[in-house]
């Protein structure tokens, strides 16, 4: 088992690769920022998946490990200028031991920095973080941003913890304030990504309807509750500069804003810390992406609910085929005004990720 004493040797084995943020800007290409990658050590934790375009599980796992071969070829064919990579779920959030998790986060982050160091004009990184301890997570986020040039972090929903892995840690509690202060100070986003639930949750909720596990229902149901917890527990009131990103068109929250807000009103008298309404946080703190949810009518509805200045294009590769996203985004030429389409494809991402700073 790795110990904190092994951190130095780990850092020496994978020395930080400091790189700049000069990226290939064609002026017309897209930017995508929920695109998965991993290291061989973590492949078993991903499990079997239904891959894009009927690929086998073996083909999917080959694609999620790859950066510079078929991934880059597909980017060139689809006019993708820049892709932000992050560790495929559950990644560090599936490691219950805090020491093992902290060490693996360092290993993953250093490996990602090394893997993309020779092509930073096309690839950026989101840090993986062990969320057992908010101070340690803040320190690793700061290291990856300042030393490795990462553009923020991605967390795969709740952190497993406890000796049996059955304790679930959510980041909407006051003990995580030191982390959100660091996020605010660094002015980088944290991407909230879904994960497969622990077996105890699966057995209680999904055993009767196993086909609803994963993307059909499980992911959105669990992660949206985490996001609502961030709002209702006052995280964005305490840290008004904190920014988070939620994929799959906001895990359904903007589709149900009216209903949610109408019922939350009654919670204020019961001690709910939230000081504003939910919509306000989608105007100031929360962004969403289109990853894996290429629904044009729903996109138009969300534009009306939260505004196009809160929505970015992403794909969710290799869970979703790059070609599928490309066909959809190109189909919007007659749906959105030219400047609005530029904002969706690239403009807002440039701003949120500080790519031109």
Automatic annotation (TrEMBL):
PANTHER family: 2-AMINO-3-CARBOXYLMUCONATE-6-SEMIALDEHYDE DECARBOXYLASE, AMIDOHYDROLASE FAMILY PROTEIN (AFU_ORTHOLOGUE AFUA_7G05840). GO terms for biological process: secondary metabolic process. This is Amidohydrolase-related domain-containing protein. GO terms for molecular function: carboxy-lyase activity; hydrolase activity. Keywords: Decarboxylase, Lyase, Signal. The lineage of its organism: Eukaryota, Fungi, Dikarya, Basidiomycota, Agaricomycotina. GO terms for cellular component: cytosol. Gene3D superfamilies: Metal-dependent hydrolases. Belongs to the metallo-dependent hydrolases superfamily. Residues 1-20 form the signal peptide. It holds the Pfam family Amidohydro_2. Residues 70-334 form the Amidohydrolase-related domain.
